[in-house]
Amino acid sequence: EVQMVESGGGLVKPGGSLRLSCAASGFNFNAAWMTWVRQAPGKGLEWIGLIKSKGGGETTDYTAPVNGRFTISRDDSKNTVYLQMNSLKSEDTAVYYCAKVRSMSCYSLDYWGQGTLVTVSS
Amino acid sequence: EIVLTQSPGTVSLSPGEGATLSCRTSQSVSSAYLAWYQQKPGQAPRLLIYGSSSRATGIPDRFSGSGSGTDFSLTISRLEPEDFAVYYCLQYHSSPSWTFGQGTKVEIK
To answer: Are B57 and B2 in contact (CB under 8 A)?
Structure first.
C-alpha cells in the first residue's frame, strides 16, 4: 500500500523558515519524481515544485512565486522528500501536500499525502 | 503560461442525475497529460482520471473523461451521495511544471 506522510507544518512568523518532510512507502521511491502542491485556505490547488529521481539528475523546478525561497531535496535512503521554505510570507499560508508523479508517460500525480498546515503570521 | 478554465464554478444537482464538468486550456495540450481529481473537505485530492480518459485504480465506471486539444470534460453518469465534492483538472506541461484549473464544486440541490 502506498503511503505518504507529511510533517513539519506549524505557525511561523513572516520572514521565518520551516522545513517540511514527506515520508513515503509502498513504491519504488528511488525512481519516483516527487512534487509539492499547496492549497491556501478556501482556495484551489497550486503546484509549487518538483524533484526528479536520481536517474533524472535530481533536477528541481519551481513555480515563480516560490522560486529562490523554497528548495526541494530528497533522501532516497530514508524514502523522504523535503521542502525547505525560507523568507516566508503571509501568502504562503496553506496546506502543503507531497504527491508522487505517476509515470513518465502521463505525468499525473497519483498518490498524495494527507497534507500539513503552514501558517505564516505574526 | 497555460491557463486552465473550469466551468461551471458550481453546479447544483440531485443524486441520480448526471454531471458534465468542463476544463478548457489556453493552448492546445496533449491529452496524455490531462488529469482529473476529486477533493472532499479536509481531504487530499484523489486521482480519478489520467491521460484524459483512463480511470485510476478503484474509480467507479460512472466517472469518465474525454476531450482533446483545448477542451476536456469529466462526466459523472449518475451522482452518488459520495460524489458531491470539488473537482479539479490538472495539466502537465514542459518546464517541467503542472497547472490546475480553479475547480468545480458539485453540490447537492
So the answer is: no
Task: Measure the CA–CA gap between A65 and B55, rounded to whole angstroms.
Answer: 32
Question: Quick one: pLDDT at residue A104?
Answer: 76
Q: Which residues contact A74 (CB under 8 A, 6 or more apart)?
A: A34, A51, A58, A80, A81, A82
**What's the pLDDT band for A105 if we cut at 50, 70, 90?**
confident
Average pLDDT over residues A81-95: 98
Strand duo B104-108 + B54-55: pairing: unpaired
Q: Which residue does chain B place closest to A64, by CA atoms?
A: B97
Cβ atoms of A26 and A2 closer than 8 Å: yes
Q: In this predicted model, what pLDDT tens digit does every residue of A7-49 receive, in sequence order?
A: 999 999 999 999 999 999 999 999 999 999 999 999 999 999 9
Task: Give the closest of A35, A47, A106 to B32, CB-based.
Answer: A106
Contact A107 B103 (CB under 8 A): no
Chain A, residues 16-45, CB within 8 A of chain B, namely 35, 37, 44-45
pLDDT at B13: 97
Q: Which of A76, A91, A92 is nearest to A36 (CA)?
A: A92
Rounded to the nearest angstrom, the minimum Cα separation between B101 and chain A is 8
